[in-house]
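Two quick folds needed for the group meeting slides. Do the first one here.
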Amino acid sequence: MTDDLLGDYRADAAAREARPPVKVTALRTRPDRTVFTEDDNADGWIATDLTVTVEQ
């Protein structure tokens, strides 16, 4: 069973690597509101009242 799970994990990892990266844009609509949109997806967006800075 462990080999099956490892095989599934590797297949998932390969599929993730094959996908092109998604570009997300953050727009500040007012000082306390940020709206995130995905390129080529005008119908889908996420609004939030709290965002944090992501460090890599």
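Then this one, please, same format:
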Amino acid sequence: MTKLVHAACAFGAILFAAPAFSQGPKVGVKGGLNYTTLAGGDSNEDNGRIGFNAGVFARTAPEAPLGLQVELLYSTKGNHTKYNAFFGLVDQDVDFNLNYIELPVMADLHILDVVDIHLGGYAAYLVSANVTTSGTLGSGSDNLDKSNFKSMDFGIAGGVGFNIGTSAQIGVRYLHGLSDVVDSSDLSSVVGNPQNRCVQVYVGIGIGG
């Protein structure tokens, strides 16, 4: 968590230092949808869930062909499982939710003012974990003990963005977690050692630079 806080402070410094540069960073807001799964262990990668991501970004040297883009996002991950039993009499949906503060740091290759290719990595801090259910057996939500899960997640990321005018961008990104999600021997004996996988579709709006 300490490293993520330091990185977030550095991100804030970039934003507030923008006026000091002749060509300051391009800053803005972004948000979109996540399609996430938990891969590895005994989890099923086909059981994806829909979540969201939202936050802010800053790109150094916005007119240069190569820059650095740093983001600070709230991002929801996890997976979805559907249970059907007793010849369809029991039909239940279960969402396993992991909610993170996420810090992607990406090299940004700017091509012909139209396309941006992003390659880099991310670190994320687990804010909360819960399970939500709905179906024949009723609906509800239960918070999970965070101590059963790794507080930090990290991985590699890459994607492509398409620029609309000078301030807007739509894009898609893939994040491949390299850290096990579970931090409990009892829980891992049941679910294995899954890792986060995430496909993001987003819209970004520049407000400076």
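Slide caption for protein two: The radius of gyration is 19 Å.
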